[in-house]
């Protein structure tokens, strides 16, 4: 009966994260499920500790990014960027929408999808406030959807990419050859779908008579810190070094330098960081560790091998669609950990591995808890006084995720068919 109870607790915990009953924060539900598993003896304290330590690189990465974002916010860097964006939009809501989307591609590609949620969301919120738009959500939706749609441009664009490939990460040039066209398709089709669904909100004329504020020395340092972080992540990826520690170091150093330059107390920045994200991730890792004790890894590994032997084409489509759905049921972080373990357990054809990675990266655009990036986006959204319900996001994601996913998987399949 242990596996049944484990699955039940995991299901209820994930449901709590998604629904947030009584407005209780997401991390409380994830941690409650993890603690309950230990208290009931369904997993040992040692197994829960293994789950927590498995997330060390993610905690470090998020810490660095959140400190960067909060420091930049405190120094009004986002207000400065917002003023420039609204000026370049020249009164056009459609042009502002396109500008934000382009920036989202760059941030996701070079800083990761989680950084897009943490760093870009407050910048966009500032931009639409400066432009005095009537409905800011269409622009804020960009931060959520592009964070996943552009997350396989580079290996560093999504930490899940590193999880899927493990120690067998393709060299950068091989990655670009394999994923450039699928990335272009994913980004382009997502833009078309998102732009189509938000078309009615993009007909207004936006404010352009906003003066460009002065960027303080601290703001310039924060901007330089973000740029250096992007460069370091690229180098770390090329050298196959885990991204967490370099990100944490650059984030902490940037914050220290900015605060020292401005002679400000660090407590305001530390206080305003959304630290609840870290126990949320830790809880999810423990839930995944519990699921592995139910034998799911062995079952999925056998199923993948059998299906691949039967039909590579069929397995490619089923794998991509299956993991995409699983991401929205249990989040792409635990799904990626499970899928990565299964993929690395046996010889999986590259086309199937690519389909799984695309399902992990792009599939989460269906629901609010599909990916860690979207959860981070929700947290950032609430800080800006905005909110999006799970059902409203699902209705939008049903179109904005499904068609790009099918198109991108189709490109992967055609490439395999042509190469074969």
Can you describe what's shown?
Helix 2 (26-39) packs parallel to helix 14 (277-292), helix 15 (296-310) packs across helix 17 and helix 18 (350-362) packs antiparallel against helix 21 (402-419). 77% of the residues lie in helices and 0% in strands. The chain is built from 21 helices and no strands.
Biggest sheet, open or closed, and with what strands and sense?
Answer: none
The rounded distance between the terminal residues' Cα atoms is: 46 Å
Q: Beta-sheet strand percentage? A: under 5%
Mean pLDDT: 88
- Give the ordered list of helices and strands: HHHHHHHHHHHHHHHHHHHHH
Helicity, in percent? Answer: over 70%
> What is the helix tally?
21
From the spread of the alpha carbons, the general shape counts as globular
Q: Using DSSP, what is the number of strands?
A: 0
User: Radius of gyration, Cα only, in angstroms?
Assistant: 21 Å
Query: Which stretches are low in confidence, meaning pLDDT under 50 for 5 or more residues running?
Result: none
Helix and strand content put the structural class at mainly alpha
Brief digest:
This protein has 420 residues and is mostly helical. The chain has helices at residues 2-19, 26-39, 45-54, 56-74, 77-89, 93-111, 113-131, 137-149, 159-165, 172-197, 217-238, 244-262, 267-272, 277-292, 296-310, 312-330, 332-345, 350-362, 372-383, 390-400, 402-419. Helix 2 packs parallel to helix 14 (277-292).
Task: List its salient traits.
0% strand; 420 residues; mainly alpha; 77% helix; 21 helices
């Amino acid at each position: 009966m242990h596996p049944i109870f484990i699955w039940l607790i995991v299901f209820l915990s994930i449901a709590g994260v998604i629904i947030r009953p009584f407005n209780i924060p997401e991390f409380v539900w994830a941690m409650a499920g993890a603690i309950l598993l230990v208290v009931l003896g369904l997993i040992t304290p040692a197994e829960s500790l293994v789950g927590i330590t498995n997330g060390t690189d993610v905690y470090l990465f998020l810490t660095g990014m959140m400190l960067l974002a909060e420091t930049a916010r405190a120094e009004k860097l986002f207000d400065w960027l917002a003023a420039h964006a609204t000026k370049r939009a020249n009164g056009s809501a459609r042009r502002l929408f396109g500008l934000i989307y382009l920036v989202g591609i760059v941030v996701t590609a070079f800083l990761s999808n989680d950084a897009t949620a943490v760093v870009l969301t407050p910048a966009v919120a500032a931009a639409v406030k400066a432009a005095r738009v009537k409905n800011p959500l269409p622009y804020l939706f960009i931060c959520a959807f592009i964070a996943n749609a552009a997350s396989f441009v580079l290996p560093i664009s999504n930490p899940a990419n590193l999880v899927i490939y493990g120690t067998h990460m393709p060299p950068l040039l091989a990655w670009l050859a394999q994923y450039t066209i699928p990335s272009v398709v994913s980004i382009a089709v997502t833009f078309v779908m998102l732009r189509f669904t938000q078309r009615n909100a993009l007909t207004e004329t936006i404010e352009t008579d906003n003066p460009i504020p002065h960027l303080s020395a601290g703001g310039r340092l924060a901007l330089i810190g973000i740029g250096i972080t992007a460069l370091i992540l690229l180098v770390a990826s090329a050298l196959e070094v885990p991204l967490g520690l370099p990100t944490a170091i650059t984030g902490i150093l940037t914050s220290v330098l900015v605060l020292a330059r401005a002679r400000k107390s660090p407590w305001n920045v530390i206080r305003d960081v959304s630290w609840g994200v870290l126990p949320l991730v830790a809880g999810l890792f423990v839930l995944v560790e519990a699921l592995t004790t139910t034998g799911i890894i062995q079952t999925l590994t056998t199923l993948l091998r059998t299906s691949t032997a039967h039909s590579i084409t069929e397995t490619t489509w089923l794998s991509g669609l299956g993991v995409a759905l699983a991401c929205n049921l249990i989040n792409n972080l635990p799904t990626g950990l499970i899928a990565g373990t299964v993929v690395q357990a046996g010889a999986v054809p590259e086309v199937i591995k690519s389909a799984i990675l695309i399902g992990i990266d792009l599939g989460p655009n269906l629901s609010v808890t599909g990916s860690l990036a979207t959860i981070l986006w929700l947290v950032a959204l609430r800080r800006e006084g905005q909110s999006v319900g799970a059902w409203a996001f699902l209705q939008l994601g049903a179109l904005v995720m499904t068609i790009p996913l099918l198109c991108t998987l189709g490109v992967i399949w055609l490439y395999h068919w042509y190469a074969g």
